[in-house]
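Morning run. Coffee first, then this:
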Amino acid sequence: MTSRIRHPYLDHPGPIPFAHRGGAADGLENTAFQFRRAVEAGYRYLETDVHATADGRLVAFHDTTLDRVTDGAGRIADLPWTDVRHARVAGKEPVPLFEELLDAFPEARWNVDVKAESALQPLLDLVERTDTWDRICVGSFSEARVMRAQRLAGPRLATSYGTRGVLNLRLRSWGVPAALRRSAVAAQVPEVQSGIQVVDHRFVRAAHARGLHVHVWTINEPERMHRLLDLGVDGIMTDHIDTLRKVMEDRGVWV
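And here it is:
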C-alpha cells in the first residue's frame, strides 16, 4: 500500500473496504436501508452515484432513469423531486436525497460517482454548505467532469481519475510516456476491462510511485479479493459486503 496520505479522505489504517451502492447484492442499492446495513456491518466507506432532478435536487441513484430498479419510470433529469420521491427501489425503499444520507451517517465517508454534468454543481454546493470536504471523493468515467470539479473546488476536494487518467496511468506502468493529472488522489479501476488486465503489480507500483491509492471495483468473489490484496491495492469495492468483511477479517486487516 502507498504510505503517503494525500487527502484526509484517505486516512484509514489498512486497505479500505467500500460498500458499493451500500451492498447492491441485496437488490436495494443506493437506499438508506442498504447504507444503514453496511454501516451496521462496520463499513466506514460507502460508494454511491448522484443525479440531479429537474428542480436541482441531488439524489443517490445509479441509472439515468428510474425504470430498472424502481416501480417508477422516466429520466431523473426530467422529473421534479416530488415525482422521484414516490418511486420505490425494488418496490420497497425510497430514493434518497444525498444530503439526507450525509446527515444520517455522519461518520461515513462517501465515494461519489457524478453520473451527469447537471449533478456536479449541486454536489459541490452541498459539500460546501455542509463542510464535508474530508468525507467526499468525487469520481466519474468522464475525466473532463472530474477535472471541472477539481478546478471549481481546489485541493480540498479529493478526486479520482476518470477513464482517460486510468488509461494514461496504465500506459505509464508499461513505460509509455503519458500525461497525468497531478491533483487526483486515487485511481479507481476495474480489475479487467474489455479482456485487458488493468490491475497488476506494474499498475499498483506505478500508482504508488505517484502517491496514488488504487481502489478496485466491483469485486464480489473471495479469491479475487485475496489476489488483489496480495497485490497491495488500497481499497476494494464490493456488492457482497459480508464476503469482503470475512476476507479482510481472515487476513487481519479489517478495521
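The first helix runs from residue 32 to 40. Good start to the day.
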